[in-house]
Every structure is written in C-alpha cells, then in structure tokens.
Design a protein that fits this description.
With 109 residues, this protein is of the alpha+beta class. The chain has helices at residues 3-11, 49-58, 83-97, 100-107; strands spanning 16-21, 24-29, 32-39, 42-45, 63-68, 71-77.
C-alpha cells in the first residue's frame, strides 16, 4: 500500500477533503483530522483507543504509537498492511470524527 491508496480510500468517504498538514497531506471531515501522511510509506490514523492499543500490542512490526502532547494516533507502515485492513482502519478513523448522523447514513444504520 502507498500514499495514493490512502488518498483513494479516504476521499471515497463522505465529505472528506484533503488538506496540507505541515507540508504533508492530511484528510479531514468537517475540518476534523482523521488521517495524516507524515512521511512516505507511513500513515497516522485516529482510531478508538481500545483498537489503537490492540493493534500495537498484536502487530508492533506494522503499528506504533504516535504521540503529540496528549494526542495519540496509530502509526501504520503502509508496506506491511493489506488493502482490506487499511480500508477498514481508514473508515474507522473517519467514523471517530465524522458527525454521527453522517456515519449512520454512510453505514446504513
């Protein structure tokens, strides 16, 4: 997987826009950040903290804790993840910040 895969998957979700984040791409829904591409081959995602901890504990070779002050994101090695798992995690990150009505409409709830 690579940056273009992240871009394609993120932009396929409702109301997502790409914006600059310190000179690198980021993806937001209603101005709320859920994915950043801090360097080639890596993505940082805002996933629920229980999922965050489980991913890092189960596969530290793929996932790592990324911390800015009190903000935690899960860092992903894009070369070590398959398309289906990446799509699921990007959608999960999007659902963390998107308005609940938008999430429910998208997920058909």
């Amino acid at each position: 997987m690579d940056e273009e895969d992240v871009r394609r998957l993120a932009l396929a979700l409702p109301e997502v826009e790409e914006r600059d984040h310190f000179g690198r791409p980021s993806f937001r829904v209603r101005n709320k950040l859920f994915v950043t591409l801090p360097e080639p081959g890596r993505a940082n995602l805002k996933v629920p903290m229980d999922e965050h901890a489980a991913l890092i504990a189960e596969r530290p070779e793929v996932f790592r804790d990324v911390v800015w002050g009190q903000i935690h994101r899960v860092g992903v090695d894009l070369s070590a993840i398959d398309a289906d798992e990446l799509a699921e995690l990007i959608e999960m990150a999007w659902a963390e910040v998107a308005p609940k009505r938008l999430v429910n409409a998208h997920l058909g709830a």
